[in-house]
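Hey all, sorry for the wall of text incoming. These are the two entities for the joint prediction.
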Amino acid sequence: MKFEGTDSYIATEDLMVAVNAAIALERPLLIKGEPGTGKTILAHEIAKSLDKTLIEWHVKSTTKAQHGLYEYDAVKRLRDSQLGDERVQDIRNYIVKGKLWESFAANEQPVLLIDEIDKADIEFPNDLLLELDRMEFYVYESQETIKAENRPIVIITSNNEKELPDAFLRRCFFHYISFPERETMEAIVDVHHPGLKKSLLREALNCFFNIRDVPGLKKKPSTSELIDWIKLLVVEDIPPEALKSNDMKTIIPPLYGALLKNEQDVHTFERLVFMSKRGQN
Amino acid sequence: MFVDLFLELRKARVPVSLREYLTLLEAVKLGIASYSVDEFYYLSRAALVKDERNIDKFDQVFGHVFKGLEYLSDIFGVEDIPEEWLKALAEKMLTEEEKAEIEALGGWEKLMETLKKRLEEQKGRHEGGNKWIGTAGTSPFGAYGYNPEGVRIGQEEGREGRAVKVWDKREFKNLDDSVEIGTRNIKVALRRLRRFAREGAPTELDLPDTIRATAKQGWLDIRMVPERHNAVKVLLFLDAGGSMDPHVRVCQELFSAARTEFKHLEYYYFHNCVYEAVWRDNRRRHAERIDTYQVLHTYPADYKVVFVGDASMSPYEIVYPGGSVEHFNPEPGEMWMRRLTQVYPKAVWLNPVPEKYWKYTPSIDMLSQLLEGRMFPLTLDGLDRAMRELSR
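and here's what came out:
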C-alpha cells in the first residue's frame, strides 16, 4: 500500500516519502505550505488512490477538541424524557459522534483530514495529543473507552497562523509543500488541462512565473490560481500570442484578475507595467 | 546509526527529540527509505524537522554529516561493494533483539535509559568503524557506512549522483528565520501580547451567572457582562529621524499592525533618543511638542513600552546634556531613558538594524544596556522574543 500520486495529483518524491512514512508508522502527517499548493487536496487524493473513505474535519476558530470526539445532547434527552420516550433510559442515544470517533469506528481504515488546525484555539492541538497518539479516548457519559479498530491515516493541514505546540509536533511527520518548480508545474497543469496547446502553456507559465517575480506582491499567485487562470484562458479562447512579448512586464496579461487577488497587488502590477512602458517609449 | 546526524542537529539548534529519532529508526526499519539517499533524506526530514524555518538548518547539517559520501566511492570504486553486503548492514540498523527490547520495555523512562545506554554503545562501535575506514579521512564509517550512501554506490548514478544536490540546493533558505515581515505576520506576533479582560459597559448576556442568579432568586434575573477585549496597554515610541528613512516600510507595517491589534495604543515620536519632549504629529513636530514628564504622568505603570528606533547616533547624544542634534537638551538622553524605564518596568526596544551589525555601533550597545539587554531586532523572530519578554 503505497501512495504514488494520482492521475489528477502530481506528488513530488519528498511528499510521497513523507506520506508513505506516515501511513506505515500510523502517525499523523502535518502538511504546511503556501495557500493554494494543494494541502487539502492531498488528503482527498490519498483517499482516492488508496481507495479509502475520507472523513473531513474542518476546523474553525470556535472548534473545540471535544467536538471531534463526541457531544452530549442534553436538550434532546430532556425533551424525550418529558414525552416519555423509551430511548431516554440509555444515555448512549444522546451522544453525538464527532469526526474522530467516526474515523475510529470505521470498519476499514479511513483517511481523516483535520483541515486548518491552526484556525482553532491555541490549546486545541494539545487537547488532541492523547487521542492522536493512542487513537483512543474515554466517554465519560457512558463510561466506555473508544479505541480505533483501524488506526486512521491522519492528515493535518496548517496555514501557520498559530504555532503548534512541540509536544504535538513530535508526534507527527512533517512536510512543507514548497512552491513547485517549472517542470512540476507543467506536469500539474497537464493533469488539470490535458491536451492544452504547448504554446499556450509555455506562454502562460512564462507569464505566471514573471508575475510571481514581481517584487512587493502581497499575495503571490499560487498553483490553484494558475489552474483557474488557464481554465479562463481556454474558455475565452485567448491565443498564445496575446501572452507573448519580449518583456513580459510590458503587457498586462489578459484576465489577470484570476491571478492577483489583492487590489493593492493589481495596483503595484499596473504601475510596474506603466513604468516599463514609459521607459520603452 | 544516525546518532551523528541527531547530535549535530541538536548542536545546530534544530529542536529534535529522542522520540523523533526513534520514529526515524522505526521508519528505516520498516524499509520506507528503500536504500536510496534521496529517500532517506526526505524521510529523515519529515521525521525530524517540524518547522519549515528549520529545514535550511537541517539541509546544512545533513550535507555536513553525510559529506563523506564521495570518499567511499573513491576508495572502493562502484563495483567493489557487493549490494547484499550493504543491505545486510542496513538491516543491522535495528536488530531483532533491539526491536524486541524496545517492545519489551513498557515505561518511557526506562526506554530513555536503555536508549541512552545504547547510544553510548553505538559511539564505541562507530569509532571502531572509523578506524576501519581510516583512509577515508573525515568520514567515520559508523555514520555513513551503514546507510543510504552505500546504496548510492550501488545505484547507477555515479559519484556525482543527485543525492547531495537535493539538500545542497537549500531550497528552504528563504524560510529560515523569515526576515520577510508583513502586516499580517506582525499581527500574529503581536498576538502574544494578549490579555483578555472584561471591562466597560455590560453588553453581553452572562448565561451561567443568569442561571445561578435565577435559581437563587426564584425569578428570571438577567445578568450582563462587558465584552472581552484585549486589555493590554501599549505605549509606542517611534524614532522619526533621518537615519530611520531606510526602515520606514517595516516601521509602517509594525505601526499599522499594532494599531489594529491593541485597543489601548498610544504613540509618540522622537528623534534618535528620547529627551524632554516628544510629539504626536511628525509634520508639526516643532510646533506641538509634548512634555515627556506629561507622558510619564498621564499613563500608569501598567502600560508596556515599546521603543522603535535604529539607536544609531553619536554616543554624545545619549550621555551629554546638549548632545542632541536638533536642539539644546538640558538633560542627557540617558537620564530620560532611565526615567522611562523606571516608571514602566515592561519596556523593550525594537531595532530595525540587523542584529549582527549592532556591535559596530556603540550607541546601540549603550541603549541596550540602559534597557538591561531588552533590545530586539525588528524581525519576526525578534518581535516574538520581545513580546514574550513583555508578557512575562
